[in-house]
Amino acid sequence: MKLTPFFGIYLLFLTSCKSISQTKVDVLVVGGSTSGVAAGIQSARMGVNTLIVEETPWLGGMLTSAGVSAVDGNYRLPGGLWGEFRKALVDYYGGLDSLKTGWVSNVLFEPSVGNKILNRMTNKEHCLQVWKEAIVENVKKAGKNWIVTVRKENVSKQVEAKNLIDATELGDIAKLCGVKYDIGMESREDTKESIAPEKKNNVIQDITYIAILKDYGKDVTIPRPEGYDSTLFACACVSPVCIKPKEPDRLCSMADMLTYGKLPNNKYMINWPTEGNDCYLNLIDMIPSERLEALKYAKRHTMCFLYFMQKELGLKTLGLADDEYPTTDKLPFIPYYRESRRIQGEVRFTLNHIAEPYSQPEKLYRTSIAVGDYPVDHHHARYHGFDELPNLYFYPVPSYGLPLGTLIPKEIDGLVVAEKSISVSNLVNGTTRLQPVVLQIGQAAGVLAALSVKEHKNIREIPVRKVQNIILDAGGYLLPYLDVEVNNPLFKPYQRIGSTGILKGIGKPVDWANQTWLRADTLLLTSELDGLKDVYPSAVYDSTKKTMTVKEALALIQQIAKVENISFMGDITYLAQKVYSDYGFKDFNLNKEIKRGEMAVLIDRFLDPFNKKGIDLRGHYR
Fold first, then answer.
1. Structure letter (DSSP) for residue 508
2. What are phi and psi of 554, to 5 degrees?
3. What does the alpha-carbon distance between residue 302 and residue 296 come to, in Å, rounded to a whole number?
4. Which of 101, 105, 426, 524 is close enough to 70 for a disulfide, judged by CB 3.0 to 4.6 Å?
5. How far apart are CA 396 and CA 455, in angstroms?
6. How far is CA 257 from the centre of its chain?
7. What is the pLDDT of residues 29-39, one digit of tens each?
8. Of all helices (H) and strands (E), which one includes residue 308?
9. CB distance 381 to 299 below 8 Å
10. Among 165, 181, 167, 173, residue whose Cα is nearest residue 137
């Protein structure tokens, strides 16, 4: 058989990734969670030997194993692996509208389907192996590498890895590695967030054992659970037994409660926050045996809520789906953990960085590797001191970019932290914890760990722009601009120039899906060029004029290029005309007032500040 050039390259790729049946790998991802799967896929795609170790039989963490199969946020920002996963759901169910089965989300699916899709995605990666039902017993450092003891099939194996990614639900690996971390709410003095409590506390968000129900068409009422108390659920919805609702503003009809998380194929995701199956348990620092014992309460609480629905609300034909989880109790493998340890990282991302990104001392928006558009949403109603906590029910924020430094722990080398354990404030965790953001966090973690291996550098030595370029090449967002979609040729230049701060976007809270725009189609005002001076202090332009013509913009670019020793291959006017044509801009006219998007593309093409001006993890130019 004659080998084609492509097939030869394919064979070379295969042989470059050694079998991971060996105990040495380049990147070890602990946790086949939402972020863990993304991290493993991305690392393997970069040609790096990667192993995912997962405790349960499924992949996907909160998306699948915990049953949170109603995706919150980023519906208009389908970037990177989040976009790939959503497209796979669309292909499976037959269209984007087929995912709009409930009202809490525009993307709902059966957890078992999500697991199948993620397994299919991981199986395609020749540099990736997955060990399921495998538990990490010990982690230690040996020189520059990690030695991790993993128990699988009652046999302990040692895995040696150059880099480690903590994608566990509660940040357990970070703790084993000696990373400093926080649990609970910081004080207002600590974070300078105006709505933070005056004193710090150890209060975390409620957890939930989700139930996936289906209609059996007959009475399937379960036996009365031990410790059942109907008053705990009396005002889960409007009903004759609801006398004094704890949260009257959130009281819904029974129909709304059910259709909240209605899934395809007439199933129902019960993840109901209003006097439903949320419960308060802080088991983050417990040992595994203590956690298992504590989680019996969370499971029983959900079964009590199911019994309440069947007995008090008359929903006798609804029962736990028998075709979702292969567990003896038909409940998910794990609960939905909304909060975990939060590491002390190279930077800490706070509400101030989200609300006013450009006025902070750190310019963290320049270092972004993921985006989110969901409000800050905390679940605390089951905590006994609920009334004393800040009101964080859909606290409004603009959409935002998440900085790279939140994934890198202080002092500990060779470790990247993902999932919900990144370095953010407790308040910010209420938006960064959501599935699309966590998928992107995982993808960025995979990029960072793989680059460190390929370039033989410490993780914190990897240039921010290198990580961002790989994310852009993978169709990911750096900043949440809604001006153009990822497949538009203008996407990358807008993302790059926005990430330099030369042109700044404007964000605002808009219901459940907040927005940020570069405002590419509006005229450029000279008052908006203050960011240009940050990058090029020598820039000179007439600030007395409100707007700028294309000719004046090109003259400014030429002036900067001369100082920066940048040369062009030809006349800039001729070259600019070609740029306009390449990017679909109409009516090239030197005397026309230039728009923001046009200026962004010209600066990107001729000066390339994104790649030529390095930044540190705090967003400061080197």
1. E
2. -65, -35
3. 10
4. 105
5. 41
6. 27
7. 999 999 999 99
8. helix 288-311
9. no
10. 173
Distance of CA 150 to the CA centre of its chain: 27
Dihedral angle, C-alpha 588, 593, 597, 600, nearest 10 °: 90
Calpha distance 13→408 (Å, rounded): 30
Buried (b) or exposed (e) across 416-429, using 16+ Cβ within 10 A? bbbbbbbbbbbbbb
- Whether the CB-CB separation of 371 and 479 falls below 8 Å is answered with yes
Nearest Cα to Cα of residue 160 among 179, 176, 140, 180? 140
Report the candidate in 459, 466, 368 with the shortest Cα–Cα distance to residue 413.
459
Confidence of residue 21 (pLDDT cuts 50, 70, 90): very low
pLDDT, tens digit (0-9, with 9 covering 90-100), for 525-582: 999 999 999 999 999 999 889 999 999 999 999 999 999 999 999 999 999 999 999 9
- Judge residue 142's burial from the number of C-beta atoms within 10 Å of its C-beta, 0-12 exposed, 13-18 middle, 19 or more buried: exposed
Q: For 125-158, what is each residue's pLDDT tens digit? A: 999 999 999 999 999 999 999 999 999 999 999 9
Q: How many helices (H) and strands (E) does the chain have?
A: 18, 19
β-pairing, 506-508 vs 515-517, is antiparallel
The token duo for 314 is 């008359």
* Three-state SS at 523: strand
DSSP letter for each residue of 103-153: SS-S-B--HHHHHHHHHHHHHT-TTEEEE-SEEEEEEEEETTEEEEEEEET
Region label for 152, one of left (φ > 0), alpha (ψ between -120 and 50) or beta (otherwise): beta
Enter the tokens of residue 16: 């470059």
State how far the Cα of 41 lies from the Cα of 165, in Å rounded to an integer: 13
Q: Among all chains, which residue has been given the structure tokens 């996907």?
A: 60
**Average pLDDT of span 293-314:** 98
Tokens encoding 410: 């202080």
Sign of CA dihedral 444, 445, 448, 449: negative
Tell me how far apart the terminal alpha carbons of the chain are, to the nearest angstrom. Answer: 54
**In 167-307, which ranges are E strands?**
181-182, 207-208, 211-215, 262-263, 267-270, 278-279
Say what the pLDDT of residue 393 is: 84
Question: With left for phi above 0 and alpha for psi between -120 and 50, is residue 171 left, alpha or beta?
Answer: left
* φ, ψ dihedrals at 510, nearest 5°: -140, 90
Tokens of 229: 């108390």
What was the pLDDT predicted at 16?
Answer: 52
Helix (H) / strand (E) containing 507: strand 506-508
Write the DSSP symbol of residue 157.
E
At 329, list the tokens. Answer: 């109790």
Return the ∠ at Cα 129 (arms to 125 and 134), rounded to 5°: 150
Residue 485: partners with Cβ closer than 8 Å, 6 or more residues away: 491
DSSP annotation of 621 reads B
CA 416 to CA 454: how far, in whole Å?
15
Q: What does each C-alpha distance from 188 to 42, 145, 338, 375, 427 come to in angstroms?
A: 37, 39, 22, 20, 11
3-state secondary structure of 617: coil
Tell me which DSSP letter residue 32 carries. Answer: -
Whether 247 contacts 381, CB under 8 Å: yes
Tell me how far CA of residue 237 lies from CA of 231, 254, 309, 379, 619, in angstroms: 12, 5, 10, 17, 47
**Using one digit for the tens of pLDDT, what is the confidence trace for 521-541?**
999 999 999 999 999 999 999
Rounded Cα–Cα distance for residues 456 and 66 (Å): 37
